[in-house]
Every structure is written in C-alpha cells, then in structure tokens.
Design goal:
The protein is α+β, with helices and mostly antiparallel strands. The protein has one domain. The protein is built from five helices and five strands. Strands 1-2-3-4-5 form a five-stranded antiparallel beta sheet. It is globular and about 55 Å long. The relative contact order is 0.17. The structure holds zinc ion (ZN). Zinc ion binds next to β5 and α4. It comes from Gordonia sihwensis NBRC 108236.
C-alpha cells in the first residue's frame, strides 16, 4: 500500500455513519506503520473493545470499513479466511461489517473469520518451515501475498456491491 494519513483514512470510510467515523480512534503507533509492507491496514479501536477497522486499496482508491467483533469466539481454532496462516499463530475471530446501501440500513451484515490483530500481511510473508534447496521462496511468498490481497479484495467488493 501507499502511505496514508489518518485524515485520508477517515475520508475513505464507506457504509459507515457520521457518528461512527467521528468515534474512530487510531492506534498510538500509527506514525510507525509501514504501509509498504501491508496488503491492508487493520486496527482495533482502543476505546471500544469490539470495534475494529480496515483500510484497503480497492480499484485504485482507498476504502475503509467499520468492523464489529462478534460476541462468540469460534469454538475451535480456525484458520484466517484472508491469510490462511497454517500455524494459527494469531487468534482468529469473527468480524462483521454492515453491507453498504439499503441492505445495510436494514441491518444486513457480512462476516468473516480474520486474525484478531490483523497481522495477515506478516503471516503471508512467512516461509514454509521446511523446503528444498530448489524451492523458489520469493515465488512462494509472492503467491501468498497475492492470495491475501485477492481475498481481502473480494470481501471489500462484496461489501460494496450493494452500495446505492
Ligand atoms: Zn490472517
């Protein structure tokens, strides 16, 4: 991703109410975030325990969404839908977001099982624990990163598909 300011992110929210956007709190380490190593930027709101957000470059522009963490945690350890990290090194939880447009105003949501702290980009850059000398590690990593980008992209596309 390109580097973004908090204001640019705030301006890019879709399907969120004005009061939701007004309550967004950024992490204290926001200035240290290296967007160039991220396929999406996600963070939890430190003032609202169940509230989280993602910012993603979608069709050439930044799109941000408000997420809510579901009350129930998955009963067994589950793989993240976006990074598919096989080590399960991060807790995976169900996040939901309101659909855009009339469906969203009626209360329709879309849910996805994602790493609770949004470290998918880091997981996607991990290499397999064992590999042959001839293995093209850069290719493996590029494939994992591309897979992550595509899966986050389809989620955002689905959310935006009902926009007025
Ligand atoms: Zn993940």
């Amino acid at each position: 991703m390109k580097q973004y300011t908090q204001q640019q992110i705030l301006d890019s929210f879709r399907g969120a109410t004005r009061s939701e956007i007004k309550k967004v709190t950024f992490p204290l380490d926001f200035d240290d975030v290296d967007f160039s190593r991220l396929e999406y930027y996600g963070w939890r709101d430190r003032k609202m325990p169940r509230r989280a957000y993602i910012a993603v470059e979608h069709d050439g522009r930044l799109v941000s969404l408000v997420l809510n963490r579901a009350e129930a945690t998955p009963s067994r350890r589950t793989m993240c839908t976006w990074c598919r990290d096989v080590d399960l090194s991060e807790e995976v939880v169900l996040y939901t977001t309101r659909r855009t447009g009339a469906q969203g105003r009626r209360g329709d949501t879309i849910g996805t099982l994602v790493c609770s702290g949004f470290h998918c980009s880091k997981h996607a850059r991990k290499l397999p624990p064992a590999y042959h000398k001839a293995t093209d590690l850069d290719a493996i990593r590029a494939e994992q990163v591309a897979g992550l980008r595509n899966r986050v992209g389809s989620f955002v596309a689905e959310v935006l598909s009902t926009e007025d």
